[in-house]
Amino acid sequence: MTPGGRKYKKEGLAITSISSKSKNETLLAMTDPDIKAKNIKDNRDKVLQGKTLQVYWYIMTHHHAGVREIQKALKMVSSGTVAYQLNKLLKVGIITKNDENGKYYIKEDVKKGVLGFYFRLGSLMVPRYSIYLVVNILGVLGYVFLAWKYGDMFIKNPGSLLFLFFIIFCTCVFIYESIKIWERKPT
Fold this sequence. Notes:
Order of helices and strands: EEEHHEHHEEEEHHH
Distance between the termini: 39 Å
CATH topology of the largest domain: Arc Repressor Mutant, subunit A
Strand content: 15-25%
Low-confidence stretches: 5-20, 22-30
Number of helices: 7
Strand order of the largest sheet: 1-2-3
Structural class: alpha+beta
Number of strands: 8
Radius of gyration: 26 Å
Mean pLDDT: 78
Oligomer: single chain
CATH class of the largest domain: Mainly Alpha
């Protein structure tokens, strides 16, 4: 609030004037309404959206990155935009900055929103349904092996045919789900 009790908003930031009685001066404090200090941990879902999510994804898949590197890789117009996104991630405690080389590192893996559908395998982000897909493909290969080894006796068994249809159906579902999740990745 200003001394007159007014609030100003400019470009999504609420600019609040604070009067200091001890020094008789006015200070300006800028606060982002989505990120408040007391609710910082609860606002991770709000922070990890749009460009901020893209920046976080880039750092996760490359283990560390600098401002200019992220700007070029994500084709962002200004380094100030990248710095703003990085500061939001720093405020919520998801990343950390190495002061020696100016690179940003992942401090804590977040599994909320679209990130919950992926798991990290080194520098790769793999859809979770891919694990189920691999298990089902192994089931189909096992069926083929047993059919080859035991021949007609195995193939004509109604239980084995039911298993084959079930495993093929599940494989198709997991292929579909893996592709849909891969299309939703933030880059």
